[in-house]
Amino acid sequence: MLGIEPSWLLAGLVVVHLLTLGYAYWRRSEAEGATGTRHEALEALDSPAPEVEFDDDTPTVDCEVCGAENAAEYAFCRGCASELPGGPAGDEAPTAAFGSGSV
C-alpha cells in the first residue's frame, strides 16, 4: 500500500489528530478570553433564581428542593427545574394506555 508501513501511517494519523486537538483547544481558549471563562458561565448557572414578585391574587407554591417561590400553575421550579407538587392546574394524566388498541 503506497510503500508505507501501516505502523508509520497510524503514527502519522495520531500526530495529525493531536495537532488538530491542540489547535482547537488554542482557538477555544482565545475565544473564551474575549467573552469570559467557562468557569464564570457555570457559576451563572448555579446562581439562585431571580426574585419575582407575583400579584396578590396569584396562587404560589414553594419548591421543596430549593425553596423558590413559583406560580401554582408551573409544572417545574424556575430555580432548580425540579417537578413541583401538583403540576399545572387543569392537566390530567392520560387515561388510556399507549397501544391499547382503541382509537
Automatic annotation (TrEMBL):
<dbReference type="Pfam" id="PF24463">
    <property type="entry name" value="DUF7577"/>
</dbReference>
<keyword id="KW-0812">Transmembrane</keyword>
<protein>
    <submittedName>
        <fullName>Zinc ribbon domain-containing protein</fullName>
    </submittedName>
</protein>
<feature type="transmembrane region" description="Helical">
    <location>
        <begin position="6"/>
        <end position="26"/>
    </location>
</feature>
<keyword id="KW-0472">Membrane</keyword>
<keyword id="KW-1133">Transmembrane helix</keyword>
<dbReference type="InterPro" id="IPR055999">
    <property type="entry name" value="DUF7577"/>
</dbReference>
<feature type="domain" description="DUF7577">
    <location>
        <begin position="60"/>
        <end position="85"/>
    </location>
</feature>
